[in-house]
Structure formats: structure tokens, C-alpha cells
Amino acid sequence: MQSIYTTPSESDHLVRILPPKEGDLNAYRHSFDLHLHTFFSKDAADSPESMIAAAKKKGLSGIAITDHDTCDGVEYLRRKGWIRSDGEAVDGFLIIPGVEVSTKEGHLLCLGTTLPFMKGRRATEVVQAIQERGGIAIAPHAFDRFRAGIRQEVLSDLDLAALEIFNAAVSLRRFNDKAATFATHRSLASTAASDAHHASAVGVSTTSYDLRKLSLSTLLEAIPKGGHLEKNYLSPRQAMQKHFGNWFRGLRSVPASRRLK
Ligand SMILES: [Zn+2]
Ligand SMILES: [Zn+2]
């Protein structure tokens, strides 16, 4: 089908389409940050609301909440009415429930569903659990051996919906290049994300999809087909913030999330 979308400029995150000839009036290009952390992750600094506000300010249509080995942030947002049980957007903004699981073989993103605590379990087992719950699995910062990226031998055996080929906070840029090459060879869809641990880094890198409707089900269907990647690295200041966040990880006796009521 002929493309019905305008060409986005580098800075456009939300692009209204041209009047459709045969499509419908509800089709838009939507940008998402598919990997970020709130202070429900011990090494992240800002509240879920701060991350949402930052994303909205940047014109994103949604974000995935992918805290390390906890879905407490997702449950918190459900209670606050930010996430609907039917997967529809709230006030034109879509929160994608998720979690970044520290599997036995490295980090793995679950999008579209929550999971029980699965830290330390085999990656294949986690992928299966994600799929049984209607979610999709994406390997983030693959090959990044300094940040628990899953190595190639394991990746090859996983049923992934996509590979995060651009992580704005990757240790060495060549790890992103390696992931991109792997995705191309395997014909895997790719994503770009900020892996933000602070509100200032939300939306630094994004993936956009042309969706007729902004909802969890349409997005989960679109991700394995591939989107439009906007790739930018964290600024030195943002990288420094993340570095100190990592340093403090585990030292905090009282998680910042306890500040929430
Ligand atoms: Zn990670
Ligand atoms: Zn992460």
C-alpha cells in the first residue's frame, strides 16, 4: 500500500498523516521509548510521574516501564489509573507494562505484561513466561558484556520479537553495531531506546510505529514488524548521572520508591 504518512523531520515525534485515500482517519506515527527505569529500580532516580511528564513534553505517545526485576512501578501506575486493563491509552498516552529481567544469561525486556519475580531464571524460561502472558520479549543492549547483555550463543536460541540494536546508554558503541549486524542477519525487527534512569534522558532514543490506533495490542503487533528508529546517545551529563546511579545501586537501604504513598 502506498505510504499515507508525511516524512517526519529529525525532531518530529508525532506526525499527523495526510488525509487518507483508502485508510482511516485515525492513523498516526507514534514515538515510544520502549526501555526506561523509574525509581522502583534501585539505580534510577525519578518517579513514574516524572518519567511520564518528560515523555509527554518530548511529544512521545507512550513509554514502557521496564524496571529491574520488579513490576511495582507498573502496579503503582495501574492503581493511579495510568494503565487501563483493556490496553487503551489514557489521555492519549500509552504506558506499556513491562519489566527488565536479570536472567541467568543477561538482561531481557518483557513488554506488554507483568511477570512474577524471575531473576536468575534461564532466558528461555523467561521468554516462555512472557509469551504465555501475551507479552513480547526484546533483548536490550545485547553483546554489552559490561551491562549484562545476552551473548550471541544464547540470543540465537531465543524467540525474540525484536532486538534493541540501539541503547543510548551502551558501554561501548560497538556493542550497538554488533547488535545491529546480528538483527540484520537474523531478520529480526529492531528497536532503539534510551534506557533512561533519569527523567532528563527519556526519549533520547525512540522507536516510532505507524498505528491506526494507539493501544497496547496494536503496538505489540507492530513491534515485530519493525519501526523507525531515532538514535541518539546520552549526553556526557546524562551518562554521568546514570554512572552515579549505578554506583549507588544496592547501597540504598531505603528504596526511593518508598517515598510514594
Ligand atoms: Zn539492562
Ligand atoms: Zn535497562
Order of helices and strands: EEHEHEEHEHEHEEHEH
Secondary structural class = alpha/beta
The counted number of beta strands is 10
Q: Assign an overall shape.
A: globular
Give the distance, in angstroms, between the N- and C-terminal Cα atoms. Answer: 50 Å
- Chemical compounds bound to the protein: zinc ion
Number of helices: 7
CATH architecture: Alpha-Beta Barrel
Helical proportion, percent range: 25-40%
- The CATH topology label is TIM Barrel
* Backbone CA Rg: 17 Å
The fourth-level CATH homologous superfamily is: Metal-dependent hydrolases
CATH class wording: Alpha Beta
Percent range for β-strand residues: 15-25%
Descriptive overview:
The termini are far apart. The chain has helices spanning 48-57, 72-79, 123-132, 152-155, 173-186, 216-222, 236-248; strands spanning 15-16, 28-36, 62-65, 94-103, 106-111, 136-139, 162-167, 189-193, 206-211, 228-230. It is built from 7 helices and 10 strands. Helix 4 links the parallel strand 6 (136-139) and strand 7 (162-167). It is α/β, with parallel strands linked by helices. The longest helix has 14 residues, at 173-186. It has a single domain (30-248), classed as TIM Barrel (Alpha-Beta Barrel). It is globular, with a radius of gyration of 17 Å. Strands 1, 2, 3, 4, 5, 6, 7, 8, 9 and 10 form a 10-stranded mixed sheet that branches. It binds zinc ion (2 copies). One zinc ion is lined by residues 35, 37, 100, 140, 195.
